[in-house]
Design brief:
Number of helices: 0
Order of helices and strands: EEEEEEEE
Mean pLDDT: 91
Oligomer: single chain
Helix content: under 10%
Distance between the termini: 60 Å
Strand content: over 45%
Largest sheet: 5 strands, antiparallel
């Protein structure tokens, strides 16, 4: 019987803002039984925490390293400094989270 370890998730590099005011996350994640969901928990300076799903997978890869993009430029929190924390859920329901980071959400600029 194989023990079930919690998933692992990390940022490969700090998140960045794209030219189109999206957030780019370069994420590395793995799990012994397969990854079912990758997401980010966003805690704004006011209001409640929001969990945003970046990826759900039925084939449940055991590891991945890829870029994810999230457009929050039209949200109520655009331009605000927020706390972001990545999370991964495995096929058995175990959840793991990265260390929280602070990031100023991009604002879409119109010319």
């Amino acid at each position: 019987l194989q023990p079930n370890n919690p998933p692992q998730i990390t940022l490969v590099e700090p998140p960045s803002s794209t030219k189109r005011a999206s957030i780019k996350f370069k994420i590395k994640a793995s799990d012994d039984f397969g990854l079912a969901e990758i997401g980010v928990a966003l805690q704004p300076p006011y209001g409640s925490k929001q969990n945003i799903i970046l990826s759900q997978s039925q084939d449940a890869p055991r590891s991945l390293q890829r870029d994810f993009f999230l457009d929050l430029a039209s949200s109520d929190f655009a331009g605000e400094k927020v706390e972001l924390q990545l999370y991964a859920r495995d096929n058995t329901g175990l959840l793991a989270a990265s260390d929280p980071i602070h990031f100023t959400l991009p604002v879409r600029e119109f010319t």
